[in-house]
Each structure stands twice: as structure tokens, then as C-alpha cells.
Design a protein that fits this description.
The protein is an alpha+beta fold and 122 residues long. It has 2 domains: 55 residues, no CATH class; 57 residues, no CATH class. It is built from 4 helices and 4 strands. The protein has a 4-stranded antiparallel beta sheet with strand order 1-2-3-4, with no helix packed on it. Strand 2 and strand 3 form a beta hairpin. Helix 1 packs across helix 2. It is globular, with a radius of gyration of 16 Å.
């Protein structure tokens, strides 16, 4: 997968991804394996499945989503810093807290989560 510097789209072997709209621009080549929406974003797009053809088991997907929910709960339960003056600073603070929470996950889950390193390496 690589990012086109002119369009901002991510190109894979079979289709293009639009990060602004969080959607693929063409149908999923694996068909309905990941659900009914053939254009939906896939949670594991950080090079775990570069061809876009592998399906996750329901148990594994449920476990991953549970871990992500725990991260979201941790971030939301943190005290909001009162000295932030702009929405950009608030977003930056939440981003930092999310990254710190993700780093606590076991290594086997990191391949399913888009983190700053996977975005920047695209």
C-alpha cells in the first residue's frame, strides 16, 4: 500500500482507499466476507492484509473490538486538561492519550490497529 502524494489516496493491489471519507473507492475483492457493505473501511488496514482478501474470525474480531473499546474507555475517562485553548490542542491531547493506551496492548493486537507509525509508513 502506498499513498499517492497528489490525490491523498492509498493504493493497494486491488483498490484505492480514501482516508478523508474513510471508505474504499471500489468494491471489496473478497466479496461479502467482511460484511454487507462492500465499500466499508476495514479495521486491519495497516498492512496485515495487503491484498484485502483475508477475513477475520468472529472470535478474533470480537476480541480486537473489545480491546479497542477498553482503550476508548481509558481515553474518555482521563481528566480533560483545563488549560487547552483550542480544538486542535484538545485533539492533539486525545491523540497522545490514545497512542499511550495503544502501546499497552499486547503485540499480537497491534497489527490490527492503525497507529501513527503505520499511517506514516504508508
Amino acid at each position: 500500500m502506498y499513498k499517492d502524494p497528489f490525490t491523498g489516496l492509498y493504493h493497494t493491489h486491488f483498490r484505492d482507499y480514501d482516508p478523508i471519507h474513510n471508505r474504499w473507492l471500489s468494491e471489496d475483492p473478497s466479496g461479502y466476507a467482511d460484511g454487507l457493505n462492500l465499500y466499508a473501511s476495514y479495521i486491519g488496514m495497516d498492512f496485515r492484509d495487503p491484498l484485502g482478501l483475508e477475513a477475520l474470525s468472529d472470535d478474533m474480531l470480537e476480541e480486537i473490538l473489545g480491546k479497542l473499546q477498553n482503550i476508548a474507555d481509558d481515553v474518555m475517562s482521563m481528566t480533560h486538561p483545563s488549560d487547552l485553548r483550542s480544538k486542535a490542542n484538545i485533539g492533539s491531547w486525545y491523540h497522545t492519550q490514545y497512542q499511550l493506551a495503544v502501546e499497552k496492548l499486547p503485540e499480537k493486537y497491534l497489527k490490527f490497529i492503525m497507529v501513527e507509525q503505520s499511517i506514516n509508513s504508508a
